[in-house]
Known about the structure:
The protein is mainly α. It has helices spanning 10-14, 17-48, 51-59, 65-71, 81-101, 106-117, 120-134, 137-169, 171-192, 207-220, 222-242, 245-251, 258-280, 283-288, 290-298, 310-322, 328-336, 343-371, 374-395, 404-412. It folds into 2 domains: 1-198, MFS general substrate transporter like domains (Growth Hormone, Chain: A, Up-down Bundle), CATH 1.20.1250; 207-413, MFS general substrate transporter like domains (Growth Hormone, Chain: A, Up-down Bundle), CATH 1.20.1250. The chain has 20 helices and no strands. It starts with 9 loop residues before the first helix and ends with a helix. Residues 1-5 and 401-413 have low confidence and may be disordered.
Amino acid sequence: MAEVADRATFRQVLAVPVFRVVFWFRAVAIGADTLRTVALSVLVFAQTGSVFLGALTFGISFLPQVVGGVVIGALPDLVRPRPLIVTGYLLEAAGAAVLALAGLPVWASLLLVAAIGCLGPVFNGTAGKLTADSLTGDAYVLGRGLFQLAVSAAQLVGLAAGGVAVAAVGAQRALLFAAAAHLVAALGTRLLLPDLPAPGRADDRSLLGRSWRVTRERLGNRRARRLLLIMWLPPAFVTGADSLLVPFAALRGFPEASAGLLLACVPLGMLLGNLVVARLLGPATRERLVPVLVAVLGVPLLGFALGLGVVALGALLVVTGFGFGYGLGVQRPFRDAVAEQVRGQAFGLLSTGLMTLQGVGPAVFGLVAELVPVGSAMAAGGVATVLTAIWIAATGSVRERKNAGSRSAANQR
């Protein structure tokens, strides 16, 4: 485990071999996921002409993750991490290859993506556990920050590569590039990640029984539940608002390319926010500023209820993305609130809720947009996010860190 001073650096974090391998190949896999989503969405829309099905393709892998989290979420705490991660990347590669070559009907393609999505919490939980086990102190927070940077950068690269690949070789062949990238991630992980031992069973419960028990205990623990809600709710509200950008741009009469540019502004802001929060703010300051940064997420969305132009709205979305840096202030308190023997499933549960609610958010705000103007529905997402920031500030949910971890660990024992 890496022991570092209170203020860590990115160089120190990337010097840890286990984290470095997990980080780089996770970034490759995220880029491949994004490329696959873009190519499949184009393919589905071309085959059906349905805007709804094209949009559903973007979120089809999110909602099923709740099944994987509850049923097999304990696997990261029971199985050796290297074969678990490699298996995940190989399944992703096989899924993309089948989508490209098998000529499946649309319903079967969506079902295949949903089935692979069920396994997401297992692989995300394993990566989270390895990060928490290999880094400590501020290095852990920066490690999680690097993962968020990787997500933003990989999404930008995946969106760009997806657009280029679809234009150059067509949507179906572009899926093969996604399969190849997942194969690279699998091979690199197999060759470079140490074959660490399995954590081992802490009891005699079945996989399903253990998964359900730990999920119930995490959600039943007041401290852990609050921290999970802090990490789940703001992204759900913002994603719900962002999902309306395409119809918003069309109804406002913006140029065709403007929706894609507006969508890219949020990950750009995420890159900036995570860099600034990670490099310039100390651990205590990050935790203290969580409610402020959550408010920064929501306030710019209020501008969509006004008659602003594309440039102004893009700038607001960059600011919204900057607010996602708030997550760095929650990472260490969450790790401290979780006993080590259930750490893998706890991070899987974090991923499960995050992905599931980001799948629910677009559906909820899509319904709101049926009742009010699209810009007002997006602004409603901002209002909900600001109310969440007020709740965080009023309850002191982040900074109540002392003794929480020990109490949680005692409860687990």
